[in-house]
Amino acid sequence: MIVDPSMTWRSAALVFICCAALGSLSAQEAPSGRSEAGEFQKLEPALKFLRARNARDYAVTTPNGIDEANYVKIGGLEQWITIRGEDRKNPVLLLLHGGPGDATNPWGYAGFRTWMKYFTVVQWDQRGAGRTFGRNGAAAASTITIERMAQDGVELAELLSKKLQKDKIVLVGHSWGSILGVFMVKARPELFYAFVGTGQVADPPRNYAVAYRALVERASREGNSRALQELHEVGPPPYKDGKGFGVQRKWANLFEGADAFIASMMGFALAAPGYTLADINDWFEGQNVSAEQLVPQTSVLDPKLLGGEFAVPMFVIQGAEDFTTPTSLAKTYLNSLHAPRKAFATIDGAGHFAVFTKQDLFLQELRARVLPLIR
After folding, report:
1. CATH code at position 265
2. Which helix (H) or strand (E) holds 12?
3. How far apart are CA 14 and CA 12, in angstroms?
């Protein structure tokens, strides 16, 4: 997702688990007098069991499958990627995570397991994210720019094509990843069968204003007096501080049902095979560092740089009610593009995280729209 300066959804929904994972509650005591850190350590046997179970249940075991995870040198940095699929003959799909910095690898082993029957799915902890951040640290923060990361993405696409012996790959970008993907396909269209945006960023300067109006409309339609009161109190953007963004994010998550997804994401991450609490720490710290670097860049991005002429098919698959990157803006954006083929699809009952919360419906759209281009 495109992160607002207040980082509200993370700090509000996950602060307890984050603090426990980082051990920062060691000096605090539960009402019984026991330390929170000590109580958390007692969960380690359960986490060990869950990690072993998930390693077994989500494993790729088909004869011609692939299941690799390692660091590769991209843009002068060692960056973490996973490559998983049931058949090496299947097309390669590179998923560009949002955030910025919100790597999908910590939980995507489970979230995208059904996709691996039809695609070889590559997940990448981008510069400043997840294990890539853990390996390189905050020292690389100054290199986190839109231009540099688009170059990283192109290098990775070239590497994947060569390694997996494919002429082209499929590119799927979520939220911030939809910005990154647009710049990648503009730079090197010959590397890609198609680009699929979801949580598509269309017009960053107008984004929150349009989302605000959509939230007020939804609250009015439902007769939600509390939402209307809080939204009217902060008023429409621009905002002088993080309070207004926080209110928008709160009601966007509640209306979309995103909080349940966020909680499950954290649960799968804590029980990820091969992961440690240090990796979870890096995951969250990388989100903060990436946001500090990229949000100022994306918030003033000229919409014209995202549009225009494309040499690859362009698709947008959007949650029907996305209150973070508004569905109406995404549709207008796609209509304005010139591409060999384009199509817009919505997923009912979904919002900004449609690719994750309705991944099987999203997969149906991919199979119907993208696979025929490859065959």
Report:
1. 3.40.50.1820
2. helix 8-22
3. 6
